[in-house]
# Entry
Amino acid sequence: MRRLSVRHESFPIAGSFTISRGSKTTAEVVLVEITESSNGTGQPDTGQYRGRGECVPYTRYGESISGVIESIESIRSEIEDGLDRHRLQQFLPAGAARNAVDCALWDLEAKTAGRRVWDLAGIDVPATEVTAYTLSLDSPDAMQRAAKKVASRPLLKLKLAGEGDIERVSAVRQGAPDARIIVDANEGWTIEQYQQMAPVLATLGVSLIEQPLPADDDAALLGIDRPVPVCADESCHDSCTLAQLQGKYDVVNIKLDKTGGLTEALVLRNTAESMGFDIMVGCMLASSLAMAPATLVASGVGTVDLDGPLLLAEDRPHPLDYSNNLVGLPAPELWG
# Structure
């Protein structure tokens, strides 16, 4: 017998986090817990198992905490009656709500089977990968100071906004001369700014430009010179969106809050690779529980950006291990 629990939780950020759309000081998440008991009562016993999933509702996609909770509650009876992750894909659209439920169902299945989640997915044990560390949007001087503090990290991701971005990247390059740098405009550039800045960013050693143009105005990227590979983030949600990205982007950023969970994320990765796209695996700002399922998708890809917990003032118990700039695999107590 199953029981569903859905609630809003908040994690303080270490300082604040700023992108082109604004700043925040907390990470607001929705936690889904699905418990299943073998004694048929729904009460704790030695045969009770709990699966958990976490998502981040994103206003950019028209999501809210209350809206995501409402969406999940709308299928409470189906979940408690035994809905599996395969049929879930027909009950909720791609997005944060489905992500939390999908990942909770993966976790529950792993717990009840006594197996690790990658075994259930039919993939090898994921490799631990170097993760990017994100520098919040700020003045060039402030970003340079931030870069100096983390200059030993091999991969830095810079949040940019348009005006003054060359100065920001130049300052960070001086602060962290040996780091690989990727930049994320969060849809904040025009095509003219992209064409002016991309060659300069190439000379500064930038290896990837993430979502330079608004998703509904990215046709301007079609067929133009891309001196630095361009990655689709807001333009790429699930595998159905891939066809419209060809010729515009070189890389796609897979985030479980966009795909609607691990189930579709694995499909998206396989389909994107078959179409010739390189892969980045990213995240929203959230706890280790939200990052854990993404480690299965991130194994062996070109760019991993799963640093959400590193930007928080506190994390969940049994957090992911981020030693040596790597993102480790989840302990069973956390997920999967």
Observations:
- The radius of gyration is 20 Å.
- Residues 41-45 have pLDDT under 50 and may be disordered.
- The first strand starts at residue 2 and ends at 19.
